Amino acid sequence: MTDDVVVLRYGHRPGRDDRMTTHVGLTARALGADRVVLPDNAGQSAETIRDITDRFGGPFAVELRDDQRAYTRNWEGTVVHLTMYGERVQDVETDIRADSVDVDAPLLVVVGGEKVPFDFYEEADYNVGVTNQPHSEVAGLAVFLDRLFEGAELEREWEDADRVVLPQATGKKVVDPAEAAAEAGERGEDDDGGD
Question: How far is it, in rounded angstroms, from Cα 76 to Cα 72?
Answer without folding.
Answer: 9
